Amino acid sequence: MDSIIIEWNDNFNTNVVKIDEQHQILIELYNKFIFAYLQDKELEILYEVFSELLNYTKFHFNEEEGIMTSINYPDIESHKILHKDLLSSVNTLFEEFKLGNTKISVEVVNFLRDWLMNHIAIEDKRIGVFANSN
Ligand SMILES: [Fe+2]
Ligand SMILES: [Fe+2]
Prior knowledge:
By secondary structure, this protein is an all-alpha fold. It has helices at residues 17-38, 43-70, 76-99, 106-133. Helix 1 packs antiparallel against helix 2 (43-70) and helix 1 (17-38) packs antiparallel against helix 4.
């Protein structure tokens, strides 16, 4: 089984410096959340780290959308929809945690890990390919 920690590897490189730097921070924040989770930190601490991850995700999506606009990325609209869908799923999870309706389960963690890794390695990489071919 794959580790739930994400280790940076070259597969994640979009070769757009600003995007790659932000993705590294995003992965660090995700790992910080996982370490807190694995150490059975109090829920309050988990929420705090989770909200840090959520806020940085929002920031990053905004920045990435700005980059797509500046290079006239043709698939910007569908990419924005992916961001919006991801954020709304993560937001829903977060709201449910806060209400105490959901435990932070292995499924939740796997969901987070998979979307982060797939989105970066597949969707964001396309931005890099386009940016570097123009
Ligand atoms: Fe993206
Ligand atoms: Fe991204």
